[in-house]
């Protein structure tokens, strides 16, 4: 194994390994994911835009890449860091390997890295910026390149659809408008499965434009980055509050909170991966969830707020769900469409349809 690529963190720490995928430099935020499977869905999740993903599971690529399993039409991640990569997958559905996918997408990867040490570093010291570069780049040069690269604040703009599109289902009962902040395709499929025709609109669509579509319900999607970077969506949600049932996931959850005057903050290293236990504080039930986010809603900012806490994370007590019965609004920080339980949270889509049903009756 010939070492030819280096990972340098902004604190100057270095990790040497072997390159795969695209042969290029990349400056990004480093995060880790604890999932054992699902690397294709992770790589194609727009919420990972501008991030280098460290997979804590040591062997990635065993079952290759399958055309039907993408979560978007783009590769969201900016780099991939693994202990070992399989270049010869065994799966009758596979059409290519992970290294081939990354090379086509222009995404660099590095393997042979001590990912156990790296994950512990991120856990202990938090997410940081990093650079994937040539083996001959020294730490000082790498740190200087990181500092000279501006932190992007337009991630949602880059991953949102550019014009609206439709996803129809047979025997529809409801028309849902989905604000695309970086939406995963399985969310649209789940809405269709619950007899919803879905109109997906760009993140900066105005409230008047949305109301002109006569929605029975409004969905706000997941997406990358800091929720305060998209004030356009917050403004739209403020104007639509109470006018249609509203359901938000992940970034959508945070944006709903901001639209009600709450605040958000950045977590030390975020939540990424499966097996996060989440408790519904209203009835005590617990679900196993899949998560992918760097920010959380500040529970202290919800005092006296119209939104109430519905769910908390049992690992760190962060806010995982909000609701307002009066305005027919609810949101969750986790991903019910990711089948972590595997079906613990799918009833949330049914709850959304029930809200639309009651709104129609009233």
Element layout with pairings:
Blueprint (H helix, E strand, L loop, with lengths): L4 E5 L4 E8 L4 E8 L5 H5 L7 E5 L3 E2 L18 E4 L1 E2 L12 H8 L2 E4 L3 H11 L2 E7 L4 H10 L6 H5 L5 E3 L6 E7 L4 H9 L2 E7 L4 H5 L5 E4 L10 H10 L5 E4 L1 H9 L4 E17 L5 E12 L10 E6 L5 E6 L4 E4 L14 H15 L1
Parallel strand pairs: 3-4, 4-6, 5-7, 6-8, 11-12, 11-13, 13-14, 14-19
Antiparallel strand pairs: 1-2, 1-9, 2-8, 3-9, 10-12, 15-16, 15-17, 17-18, 18-19
Helix pairs in contact: 8-9
Word description of this protein:
Helix content is 24%, strand content 32%. By secondary structure, it is α/β, with parallel strands linked by helices. Helix 8 crosses helix 9. The protein is globular, with a radius of gyration of 20 Å. The chain starts with a strand and ends with a helix. The model has no long low-confidence stretch (mean pLDDT 95).
Task: Provide a compact summary of the structure.
The chain is an alpha/beta fold and 362 residues long. The chain has 10 helices and 19 strands.
**How do the strands of the widest beta sheet line up side by side?**
10-12-11-13-14-19-18-17-15-16
Largest sheet: 10 strands, mixed
**Contiguous uncertain segments of 5+ residues:** none
Query: What radius of gyration results from the CA coordinates?
Result: 20 Å
Global morphology: globular
Order of helices and strands: EEEHEEEEHEHEHHEEHEHEHEHEEEEEH
By DSSP (H or I, 4+ residues per run), the number of helices equals: 10
């Amino acid at each position: 194994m010939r070492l030819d690529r280096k990972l340098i963190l902004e604190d100057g720490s270095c990790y040497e390994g072997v390159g795969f995928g695209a042969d290029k430099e990349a400056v990004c935020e480093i995060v880790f994911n604890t999932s054992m499977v699902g690397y294709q869905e992770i790589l194609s999740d727009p919420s990972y835009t501008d991030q280098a993903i460290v997979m804590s599971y040591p062997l990635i690529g065993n079952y290759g890449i399958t055309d039907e399993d993408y979560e978007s039409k783009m590769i969201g991640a900016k780099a991939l860091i693994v202990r070992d990569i399989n270049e010869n997958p065994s799966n009758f559905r596979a059409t290519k390997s992970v290294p081939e996918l990354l090379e086509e997408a222009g995404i660099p990867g590095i393997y042979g890295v001590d990912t156990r040490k790296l994950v512990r570093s991120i856990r202990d010291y938090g997410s940081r910026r990093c650079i994937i570069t040539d083996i001959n780049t020294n730490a000082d040069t790498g740190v200087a390149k990181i500092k000279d690269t501006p932190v992007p604040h337009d991630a949602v703009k880059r991953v949102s659809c550019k014009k609206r599109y439709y996803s129809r289902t047979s025997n529809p009962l409801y028309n849902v408008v989905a604000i695309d902040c970086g939406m995963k395709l399985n969310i649209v499929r789940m809405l269709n499965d619950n007899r919803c025709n879905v109109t997906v609109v760009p993140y900066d669509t105005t409230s008047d434009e949305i109301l002109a579509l006569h929605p029975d319900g409004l969905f706000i999607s997941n997406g990358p980055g800091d929720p305060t970077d998209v004030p356009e969506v917050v403004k739209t949600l403020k104007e639509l509050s109470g006018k249609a049932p509203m359901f938000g996931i992940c970034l959508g959850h945070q944006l709903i909170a901001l639209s009600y005057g709450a605040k958000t903050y950045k977590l030390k290293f975020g939540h990424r991966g499966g097996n996060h236990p989440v408790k519904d504080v209203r009835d005590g039930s617990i679900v196993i969830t899949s998560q992918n986010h760097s920010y959380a809603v500040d529970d202290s900012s919800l005092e006296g707020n119209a939104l109430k806490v519905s769910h908390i994370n049992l690992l760190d007590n962060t806010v995982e769900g909000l609701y307002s019965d009066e305005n027919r609004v609810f949101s969750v920080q986790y991903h019910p469409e990711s089948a972590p339980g595997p079906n613990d949270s799918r009833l949330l889509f049914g709850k959304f349809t029930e809200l639309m049903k009651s709104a129609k009756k009233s």
